[in-house]
Amino acid sequence: MEKLDARGLSCPEPVIMIRKAMQSGGAAYEMVVDNPVSRENVTRYAQHEGYTVSVTEGDGEYTLTMTK
Questions:
Q1: Which of 6, 13, 32, 52 is the most buried (most CB within 10 A)?
Q2: pTM of the entire predicted model
Q3: Which domains does the chain have, with CATH numbers?
Q4: Are 62 and 32 in contact (CB under 8 A)?
Q5: How far lies 21's CA from each of 4, 27, 44, 57, 59, in Å?
């Protein structure tokens, strides 16, 4: 599983990061973001690409696990 850290980045940067990572065709990714807008946008993009997304929240950060 590829792990990406997008803390401190504002949209669209996290979406661009996950899009570039997904070009490799991997089956699972984990991304940490620190704002709800990025959480929603990355979730929406991953679902559009056919991934199932689960989100866990802790200490003001969101961990998105995306699997195909």
A1: 6
A2: 0.94
A3: 2-67 (3.30.110.40)
A4: yes
A5: 9, 11, 16, 22, 25
The CA distance from 59 to 28, in Å, is 24
Q: What is the pLDDT of residues 21-36, one digit of tens each?
A: 999 999 999 999 999 9
Tell me, what's the pLDDT at 34? 97
Stretch 34-47: mean pLDDT: 97
Residue in 61, 17, 63 with CA at minimum distance from that of residue 53: 63
Q: Which ranges constitute the DSSP H helices of 2-67?
A: 13-22, 36-48
Here the tokens at position 46 are 């991953």
